Each structure stands twice: as C-alpha cells, then as structure tokens.
Amino acid sequence: MGAELVRPELAGPDDVVLAWEGRDVLAVRLPQLSDSLDRILAALERTHGMPLARLDRKEKQRVVRNLEARGAFAVRHGVETVAGALGVSRFTVYNYLNRENASKDG
Question: Is the Cβ–Cβ distance between 27 and 8 less than 8 Å?
Fold first, then answer.
C-alpha cells in the first residue's frame, strides 16, 4: 500500500496514530491516492510485460474495468492519468467506462 511509519510526535493531521495501553506509539502515513494510482499503473505494466499504451483495445478496456473497480477514477485527474498511461484520449476512457456501465444495466 506504500504507507510510511513515523514517530507519533511527527504525525500530521492526515496520519493515523496508533496507541498501545493509552500511549501513542506509532503513526501511519498513508500515500496520497494519486501516488497509489501511479503504483497501480506501474504494477499493471509489469503484469502485462509492456507499456499499457501498447495493449490492444480489448485489453485496454479490461484495464479500465479493473481500475474502475479499484476506485481509480475517484482520484482527482484519474481519467487523465489513466488516459495518458493507455495512450488514449480522456474521451476514449469515458467511452470504455460508459460501455461497461451500459452492459451492466442491460
């Protein structure tokens, strides 16, 4: 997940402080969601053994479905980031999403 452990006195407002027997012992700093999206895209490239832009259309659609299920498009600029990784336009990503949602409805 890419979290970082920090001393509790260094914890920021977004960090999760863990206590043991009433004493703060550790803080967990979670990565920004946009950083997580970059990690997910890099992992998908490793899984496919090539840049995502080189995948065929059907495989790109599968990647978009996978990313949607993982909440990638809830991230600010998520569509733009994914479109760049896939080598397609934002419009194409939206078409992939709409196609998937239409098939669920029908």
Answer: yes
Tens of pLDDT along the chain (106 residues)?
567 899 999 988 878 899 999 999 999 887 666 678 888 899 999 999 999 999 999 999 999 999 998 888 887 889 999 999 999 999 999 999 998 666 666 5
Domain residue spans of the chain: 1-30, 33-105
Tell the burial category of 91 from Cβ atoms under 10 Å away from its Cβ (0-12, 13-18, 19+): exposed
Distance CA 9, CA 46 (A): 38
